[in-house]
Amino acid sequence: MNKISFIKVKGNIQMLMSHFRLPASNIQLLSLIFLMLISGLGYSQNLQFFIEEAIENNPNIQAVEKQHAISTERISEVNTLPNTEFSGGYMIGEEMPMMQKAEFSAMQMLPWFGTISAREKYAAAMADADFVEIEIAKRKIEMALSQSYYRLYQIAKKQEVLDSNVALLKVYERMALTSVEVGQASAVSVLRLQMRQNELLERKLVLEQDYAAELTAFNKIMNRQEITEISIVDSLTVPEKDIEIDFDSLRLHPELMKFEQLNKVVTQADVLNKKESAPGFGVGVEYMLFNEAPDMLMPMVSISIPIFNKKYKSIAKQNKLRFEELDIQKQASTNSLFAQLQEAVRSRNAARISFETQDKNLKQAKDANEILLKNYETGTIDFREVLDVQELQLQFQINQIEAIGEYFKQTSVIDYFIGKKIN
Questions:
Q1: Among 33, 254, 303, 314, which residue's beta carbon has the most beta carbons within 10 A?
Q2: Beta-carbon neighbour count of residue 337 at 10 Å?
Q3: C-alpha torsion sign, points 23, 27, 30, 32
Q4: pLDDT digit string (tens) for 298-349?
Q5: How far is residue 107's CA from residue 313's CA, in Å, rounded to a whole number?
Q6: Which CATH class is domain 3-418?
Q7: pLDDT for 15-38, tens place per residue?
Q8: Phi then psi for 112, rounded to 5 degrees?
Q9: Which H or E run contains 244?
Q10: CA–CA distance, 363 with 224 (Å, rounded to integer)
C-alpha cells in the first residue's frame, strides 16, 4: 500500500480516537481497519524477475531470434559453387569408320576471385542487422511489462484507499447515528454517509474488473498460459531528485544503431555487386569415343562476360540511393526519438509536480478533519462538510497514486531510450 495513504488514514483514525470516546464496537471496527491496512504489507516479487521471464518466453522476441538464426544460416547457404554440369551423347545409326561414336563432358562454372567471400560478408552483415532487432524487441518488452506492472500497482493501491475510506465512512456513520440519538443530526446525514459508501464500493468493483483485465495482459506479455496472480511491491516512493538525463546517449539506442548495421549491409552489397559484375569462368573435360580411331580426352575452359548487361550498373545506382535513404531515415528516427524522450521527461516532471501538490493537499485535508472533529465535541458538526472533506481527501489520495504510477511508467519509457543494455 502507498505509505502516504496509510499515514493519512491512520492519522484520521487517531484524530477520531483522541477527540472523543468511541463505543467498544467502534474501537473493534478501527482495529479491523488497521488489520486491513497492515495486511497489504507483505512479500512482493521483484519487477526484474518478471522482466527476465518475459524476455525468455515472449513470442515476439522468440520470433526475432528465429529470424536472426535464419540470417546466420544463410552464411552457409551462400558458401557454395554453381551446379556441376554433366552431358553425354551416343550416335544411333549406321557406324562409319573414323566417325565419333559417343561423347561425355563435365563442366564447373566458377565465380570471380573473392565473390564467395563477398557473399559471406553480405550475409553476415544481414545477420548482424537482425541481431539489433533482438535488442530492440527486448527493450520494448521490458517497457511494456513495466508499464503494465505499474498500472496494476495503481489499481491495487486505489482499491486499498477505497477500502480504508469505506471503513472511515462506517466510523462516521456510527458517529452520525450517535448524533441522531441525541438530536444533534438528522437521519439524512446517516443516509448520505451510506450512499457515499455504496458509491465507493461501486468504484471498487469496477477497479476489480480493471485489475483482472490488466493482470491478463501482464501474464500474456510473459507468455503464460494460465493467468497467475502476482505480488506487487508494497509501496513506491518518488525520489527526491532525478538523475540527469544524458540526451547524447540516445545516439547509441539500438533503433539508431540499426541504421549503422544497414549501412554495412549496403556496403557489402555494393562490394558483392562489383564482384558479380566481373567475368565468370569455368573448367571442364570432354571425353570422345571414335570408331576405328583412338579415343580423345579434351580439357575445356569457358568464360562469361556481361558485355550487354546493364543490371550491375543499375544495382550500383540503387545502392548509392539506398545510402542516401538510410541517412535520411536515420535523421528522421533521431528526431523522433529525441522528441519522444523529451515528452517522457516532461510527463515524468509533471507527475512529480502532481505528487508534491497532492501531498500538500492531503496535509490541508487533515487539518480540515481536525477542525470538524473539534466541532463534533461541541455538538455542532455538519456531516455534509465531513462528506465534502472526505471526498476531497479521497480524490487527493487517488491523484497521488496516479502521479506515482505515472512517474514510474514514464521512467520505464526513459529507460527504453537511454536504459542499460539488456543481455
A1: 33
A2: 19
A3: negative
A4: 898 888 888 877 888 999 999 999 999 999 999 999 999 999 999 999 999 9
A5: 29
A6: mainly alpha
A7: 444 444 444 444 444 444 434 433
A8: -65, 155
A9: none
A10: 43
